[in-house]
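We were asked to recover a plausible sequence for a given structure. The inputs and outputs are reproduced exactly as logged, with field labels preserved.

PROBLEM: sequence recovery
POSITIONS: 116
GIVEN STRUCTURE:
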């Protein structure tokens, strides 16, 4: 049964082509918002906390600071509303899921940048 679900997902879900990114990277996600019959593009820029799942059901979590309040947003990788993803900085972290990043503030919340 699980194989059948995986087969259907792989066949019928459209795959989006995005650059490679992982936890610790700072990315900007441009996505489309519909308000009534109008459409507009909005962006969400923050640090990737995690990537979860595989295949067409993969998701990623982004965290940004809005003033003094932390805001997290979970995006499915194959969301049709996502127009593009830009990788702004590549960070060097030792873990795939950096949940500890939520408690850090100020200078402790910096992630070392990888030059490539």
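RECOVERED SEQUENCE:
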């Amino acid at each position: 049964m699980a194989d059948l679900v995986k087969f259907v997902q792989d066949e019928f879900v459209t795959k989006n082509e995005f650059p490679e990114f992982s936890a610790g990277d700072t990315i900007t996600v441009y996505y489309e918002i519909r308000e009534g019959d109008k459409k507009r593009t909005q962006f969400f820029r923050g640090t990737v906390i995690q990537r979860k799942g595989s295949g067409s059901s993969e998701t990623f979590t982004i965290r940004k600071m809005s003033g003094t309040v932390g805001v997290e947003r979970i995006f499915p990788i194959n969301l049709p509303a996502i127009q593009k993803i830009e990788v702004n900085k590549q960070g060097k972290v030792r873990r795939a899921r950096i949940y500890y990043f939520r408690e850090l503030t100020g200078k402790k919340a910096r992630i070392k940048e990888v030059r490539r």
